[in-house]
Amino acid sequence: MDREATVSPEQTAADGELRKRLRGMLESGLETEVEPRAYDHDAVQSVVARLQALAPDDYEGKLRIAGFTLTPWRGEDEIEQACETCMYYVVHRRFCELPELMLPVEPEWSCRLWRI
Length: 116
Prior knowledge:
Elements: H1 9-27, H2 41-52, H3 59-66, E1 89-90, E2 95-96, E3 103-104
Antiparallel strand pairs: 1-2, 2-3
């Protein structure tokens, strides 16, 4: 995917609406699987396989399984992990481009599939 591709005004609006909906789910107390973090290959593959089993529009399931939080995650003796510092984050679109997620996100959010 071309990370610099132009996004239509309609897509920008749709992203904004979905981002607002996702924020609402998280703010209302949706329990997500923040830990264990997916640091090794097997852990990543386990989380990715579960995400792949979801319908593309199962946003609650994606948030839950990926372990999304509204604030950056930081474990003991670890660097802060926020969407804006993840390799899958598209800055100008505020979007997670991980194929199994493909979600509009906020820069300060985080998930357990975070990568640098």
